[in-house]
Amino acid sequence: MEIIPVTADAEVFTCNAYLVLGDRVILVDAGAMDGVESVVADHTDHLDAVVITHQHSDHIARLDSVVERFDPEVYAYGDHPLRTHNLDDGDEVQMGDETFEVVYTPGHAADHVALVSDRVLFSGDVIVYNDGAYDDGSFGRTDMSGQSRERLIQSLETLLERLPENVEALYAGHGDVFTNEAKGDSVRDVIERALRRAKERKPKYPEG
C-alpha cells in the first residue's frame, strides 16, 4: 500500500490530504488546495472514494472539485450534500490494501473520526506529530466555538484503547508524517505525550 500526500506543495492553508493506493483507491480528506484533483490524477485515473475525517473547511474545501473529476463515493460522519455513505464508530472501511476501523474522536470537531488499521493511523486533527505548538506530540485545537478540550481528551483515551499494538505510522491532518523510531518513540508514545499535554489544560497557542 502506497500513501501519497497530495497537498504537500500547497501555497494556502490546507490539511494534509492523502491518496491511498492499492486494491481500493482512497483519498483521505480533500484539502483546500486549488488543483488537488490534478495532483490525484497524476497518480491514478480512478478514485473509489473520499473519506472525510471532519468537515472543517481546510479538509473539504476542494471536495466538490474532486467529486466532479472522479465521481467517487464519499464517506463522512456528519451530513454533507455529497456524502454517499455514513461513517459511524466501529465501522470498517477498506482503504488501499488494508481494513481500517472508524474511531469516533470528537472534541476538535463534533463530526471527527480517525481511521486505524493494524499498521496505519489516519488521525485527522485529533492527534498530530508536530504543528508549531508542540514538536513531538500535539492535539487539535479546542479554543473555538463548538470545540471541547474535555471531549478531545476522552477521544485520545479512546484512541489509545483501540490502537493495535503493531501500528507503525501516523498520518495526521497537519504536520509531518511520523513512523516508529528504532529504539525511540512509537505512535503510541506520541499519542500518550499529546494526551498528557492536553490534560495540563494550558492554552495550545498562548497569546503573544
Automatic annotation (TrEMBL):
Could you name the domain of life of the organism this protein comes from?
Answer: Archaea
Occurrences of domain Metallo-beta-lactamase (ranges): 14-174
- Keyword field: Hydrolase, Metal-binding, Zinc
Gene3D superfamilies tied to this protein: Ribonuclease Z/Hydroxyacylglutathione hydrolase-like
What GO MF terms are annotated?
hydrolase activity; metal ion binding
Q: Which cofactor does it need?
A: Zn(2+)
Please name the SUPFAM superfamilies in this protein's record. Metallo-hydrolase/oxidoreductase
InterPro entries from the UniProt entry: MBL_Glyoxalase_II, Metallo-B-lactamas, RibonucZ/Hydroxyglut_hydro
* Name by which UniProt lists this protein: MBL fold metallo-hydrolase
What is the originating organism of this protein? Haloferax namakaokahaiae
Upper classification of the organism: Archaea, Methanobacteriati, Methanobacteriota, Stenosarchaea group, Halobacteria
